[in-house]
Design goal:
heterodimer; A: Rossmann fold; B: alpha/beta; four-stranded antiparallel sheet; 11 helices
């Protein structure tokens, strides 16, 4: 029996009210409108692994990340980290202890660092907030250590964020996330604002730190190639639902859900291997009025009547009627 | 070989600031032929977009073209007056920008914008122009164009908007199109559709296309030849297959290795130390010398000029040495 997973997400839901203002509703008789940003998402993250969520814009991956760390309150469902519920009001005290164990790295390193604070103060903030280290001299030493760890110089702490490039700022954000000795880090598109050569530096750094400290990552990205490089397991999201969860290797060699296949086919072929690909059709529908049944059916080459009527539930990590029924498409898959 | 549609010769672009004159483009030369797609890659600040803007005559003060020439079908266009250039732009050369929302006017219907552009450049009445607009929308793959032509830009999705922008660029059947990061704001599944559309249009209409992007994958899919830029200079230019699979310039090598791919295993990515220099502090000699693993004395002194090696041009002293060596052996 394997030990209990570090993070358990069960039937997580988030609905946003996108209704028109009250006056418009009264005068124009416009109904209330809701957007199901996340609709019944469940997954586990084991200690020390990287779980990646991929999907296109509007698929709800960032909303899941925000709910996992508690930046958003879920409409339904539960998140448990290290056995402590993030949602149960009765466990508030335990949750406070958990806070220092989890940190977040955001997409835009220009917006996530306070421009008026020097870098040493930014990195020391979690240390002071959680009383990780006592005494000013020790805090200074710890900040220097963290800066060295992420490939910067301890003297860089005296600079302001604007004196750094995008990649260096993201290093600062990573140093800050490590400052409270966190062991679970949620990374929301940490490299999508960076150039490729800098992205490679940051991805390598994140992997080194994971090896060194046994970190657990929840890694959000829209870039499948980046995910392939980082993830142990991958969840694919489409319109607020998790359509496939599988081991990273498995997903790239044997994608099962038609949407996963489509995503893989859409990635430009850098090796120019000439692998056969199905041209991608359609776009993500409006999430306020999602299609009935399986939300992917208007774009799915395997869709039939059942797919239009009935929402598929995940079976062995894939939510697809066609996969369960064995309907397939003759299609060579990228090796 | 036929005359190139666009020929850029030793282009220099400078930006004059209070402190110094910054050279954003330094001695860039290339040709693009009919029906050919030239991909231009590089990281932020490499000068890719400025090159595109220079060709299309959209360098605004304090920037200026300070040297070199740009020829369109053999005729110089870099020294035209703004009025003359306005006639060329849109008619002969057109541009597709990164963000489709800002390149369309939100207050006008898509059809009005298309008709206006068509009538500016071609002798047509309202009716004919509208028919042509519908044709163009059909060609770029917009479903039910007769209906969508009366929609406002906000009623279109990102991918569809980018298709409208492409239709706008095609209005006067230009000979040359600059596509500046046309897919960067789009999702992967939509990106793939737009790439194949640009490729198809270029081929069918025999246009020359300059595709500016930071995404090597997009280049590999679309371009015939690729130019790798670094700090305002061309590092390497050659057939796309050669440059992507066997890059020669140390920067191009690093850049290719740094890209995570679907095919490769999960080993460490190649890492180029440091980052691109600012325009105000481009090092002497080769601009890449502080980050280069193969650097030697000469790199700090002389700026390397493009050398023809194995069917491509590489601006790196390494290959000059190699050439000299082979010459000595031959002697």
């Amino acid at each position: 029996m394997s030990p209990r997973p570090y993070v358990e997400v069960t039937d997580l839901k988030k609905t946003f009210d996108v209704s028109k203002p009250w006056l418009n509703r009264v005068l124009e008789g416009a109904p209330r409108q809701y957007l199901k940003a996340v609709d019944g998402v469940s997954f586990d993250i084991r200690k020390g692994e990287t779980f990646a969520l991929v999907g296109e814009s509007g698929s709800g991956k960032s909303t899941v990340a925000r709910m996992v760390v508690g930046l958003l309150n879920p409409t339904g469902g539960e998140v448990t980290i290290d056995g402590i519920s993030m949602t149960d009001p009765g466990q508030r005290a335990q949750r406070a202890k958990l806070r220092r164990k989890m940190q977040m790295v955001f997409q835009d390193p220009y917006a996530s660092l306070n421009p008026r604070w020097r870098v040493d103060r930014i990195i020391a903030e979690p240390i002071r907030a959680f009383n990780v280290v006592e005494g000013e001299a020790n805090i200074v030493a710890r900040v220097g250590e963290l800066l060295t760890l992420v490939g910067l110089h301890p003297d860089d702490g005296k600079k302001f964020p604007h004196e750094f490039s995008g990649g260096q700022r993201q290093r600062v954000a990573i140093a800050r996330s490590l400052a409270s000795n966190a062991d679970f880090i949620v990374c929301d598109e940490p490299t999508s604002a960076l150039d490729v050569s800098v992205q490679a530096q940051i991805l390598n750094l994140m992997r080194d730190l994971q090896e060194k400290f046994g970190l657990t990552y929840l890694f959000i990205s829209h870039n499948l190639a980046v995910v392939r490089h980082m993830a142990t397991r991958i969840g694919v999201m489409y319109l607020g639902r998790l359509v496939e969860v599988s081991d990273a290797k498995e997903m790239f060699t044997h994608p099962r859900h038609p949407y996963t296949r489509m995503l893989l086919d859409a990635v430009p072929d850098l090796a120019m291997s000439g692998r056969a690909r199905i041209p991608v059709a359609g776009e993500i529908p409006n999430p306020i009025t999602p299609p009935t049944g399986c939300t992917f059916h208007p774009r799915c080459p395997l869709a039939n009547e059942r797919c239009k009527a009935e929402n598929p539930l995940p079976i062995n990590g894939v939510a697809c009627h066609a996969v369960v029924e064995g309907r397939t498409l003759a299609h060579p898959v990228a090796a | 070989m036929s005359e190139p549609v666009i020929s850029v010769r030793n282009l220099q672009v400078e930006f004059v600031t209070r402190r110094a004159t910054l050279r954003a483009i330094d001695g860039v030369s290339f040709d693009i032929h009919k029906g050919e797609v030239l991909g231009v890659v590089g990281e932020s600040g490499a000068g890719k977009s400025v090159t595109g803007a220079a060709i299309i005559g959209l360098i605004e003060p304090p920037g200026r073209i300070s040297g070199g020439e740009i020829l369109l079908n053999g005729r110089r266009i870099d020294n035209l007056s703004p009025e003359e250039m306005r006639k060329v732009r849109g008619r002969k050369v057109a541009m597709i920008f990164q963000d489709p929302l800002t390149s369309l006017n939100p207050l006008f219907r898509v059809g009005e914008q298309l008709v206006e552009t068509i009538r500016t450049h071609l002798q047509m009445n309202e009716r004919q122009a509208r028919d042509r607009a519908v044709e163009l929308l059909t060609e770029v793959g917009i479903p039910a164009p007769e209906k969508r032509i009366d929609g406002y830009p906000h009623e279109f999705s990102g991918g569809m908007r980018q298709r409208v922008v492409i239709a706008l660029a095609l209005c006067a059947e230009p000979d040359f199109i600059v596509a500046d990061e046309p897919t960067t704001a789009l999702d992967v599944s939509v990106q793939a559709q737009i790439i194949s559309l640009i490729k198809k249009l270029g081929r069918e209409r025999g246009m020359a296309v300059m595709l500016v992007t930071h995404d090597m994958g997009v280049i590999a899919e679309t371009a015939d030849r690729v130019a790798v830029m670094y700090a305002g200079r061309l590092a390497e230019i050659g057939p796309v297959r050669d440059v992507v699979q066997r890059p020669m310039h140390p920067y191009a090598k690093g850049l290719m290795g740094a890209i995570p791919t679907l095919e490769a295993s999960t080993e460490r990515l190649v890492q180029i130390p440091g980052s691109m220099p600012r325009l105000s502090s481009i090092p002497r000699g080769c601009a890449f010398n502080p980050r280069c693993a193969d650097v030697f004395a000469r790199c700090h002194v002389d700026q390397p000029l493009p050398l023809s090696v194995q069917g491509r041009q590489v601006a790196c002293h390494l290959y000059e040495n190699e050439r000299l060596k082979t010459a000595e052996v031959a002697r």
